[in-house]
Design a protein that fits this description.
mainly alpha; about 0% strand; elongated
């Protein structure tokens, strides 16, 4: 991502998707809204789990790509957590891993709790890792 005139890399904050309202909506708000919407639709538990799995995978992909763009510190943690969560939720949705009647809810709360904790390293070491 070199700038054409100077040959230098742009500031991380200039390419951070987590600082752009449109990117935030595309990568994180819309998937969360789709998952929450499943509570209000007549979907089976497996269908609900698969919608959440797709949403988590999309958000995880956004974090992984954002790390490549700007090295946002919390994305180093939240990306893998979201992708691993997508796998757990998907295998639960397919019935391969029975997590009980509240398994989906507990898994989602755990995933989003871990994602919230992923912001703590930014308080200690700063928002962006060094190149």
């Amino acid at each position: 991502m070199n700038t054409a005139k100077t040959g230098q890399l742009p500031k991380p904050s200039a390419v951070d998707w987590a600082r752009s309202p449109i990117s935030i909506a595309i990568w994180w708000v819309i998937p969360i809204a789709a998952g929450v919407l499943t509570d209000f639709l007549p979907l089976s538990r497996p269908a609900t789990a698969l919608v959440w799995a797709a949403a988590l995978a999309w958000m995880g992909l956004g974090c992984v790509l954002n790390v490549r763009r700007c090295r946002r510190r919390h994305c180093y943690f939240s990306g893998p957590v979201l992708l691993a969560g997508a796998i757990v939720v998907a295998v639960h949705g397919w019935g391969l891993v029975p997590l009980g009647p509240n398994g989906l809810s507990l898994t989602l709360w755990t995933i989003f709790g871990l994602v919230a904790l992923s912001f703590l390293p930014e308080l200690v070491w700063g928002r962006y890792s060094q190149r």
